[in-house]
Design a protein that fits this description.
54% of the residues lie in helices and 8% in strands. By secondary structure, the protein is mainly α.
Length: 72
């Protein structure tokens, strides 16, 4: 699947640490790492809401789709 998570970009723009971000959205720093590294299989809408609220952004600012290599 070619869903890219750009949370690290948004955190850098906001000068926010992973620990502070994790506390603000109510998940562990380890789960933030899972999201950042693209290993998450799903994201709850409540978590996505907390991410967007904390980073003052839209879902499309942290999630984007790129075609897989060889896709039509």
């Amino acid at each position: 699947m070619a869903i890219i998570v750009d949370i690290d970009v948004m955190l850098a723009r906001r000068k926010m640490s992973v620990g502070d971000f994790a506390d603000a959205i109510g998940i562990t720093p380890a789960n933030v790492a899972v999201l950042k590294n693209g290993r998450a299989k799903a994201v709850r809408f409540t978590t996505l809401d907390a991410i967007c609220r904390t980073l003052d952004c839209q879902p499309g600012d942290v999630l984007r789709w790129v075609p897989d290599e060889g896709s039509a």
